[in-house]
């Protein structure tokens, strides 16, 4: 863990805590390292999702009914 690390109190369900302990032990990591990695991955996925939304912001939209009609017209339904 980095010298510049911050402390936080996180309340975990007992089953989640037990699973984290087992995962950390099997990976030869601390629980903090496992949690940091999981949070980093989740934040990266969120960032990628937001980027995709921004890229597609200018696209036209279809109503649900239009989508169904298009899928039927192309033999997908």
TrEMBL record:
UniProt superkingdom: Bacteria
SUPFAM superfamilies given in the database record: Ribbon-helix-helix
Name assigned to this protein: CopG family transcriptional regulator
């Amino acid at each position: 863990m980095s010298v510049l690390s911050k402390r936080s109190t996180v309340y975990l369900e007992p089953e989640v805590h037990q699973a984290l302990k087992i995962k950390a032990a099997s990976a030869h990591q601390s629980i903090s390292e496992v949690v940091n990695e999981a949070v980093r991955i989740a934040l990266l996925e969120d960032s990628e999702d937001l980027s995709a939304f921004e890229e597609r912001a200018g696209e036209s939209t279809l109503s649900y009914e239009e989508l169904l009609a298009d899928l039927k017209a192309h033999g997908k339904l």
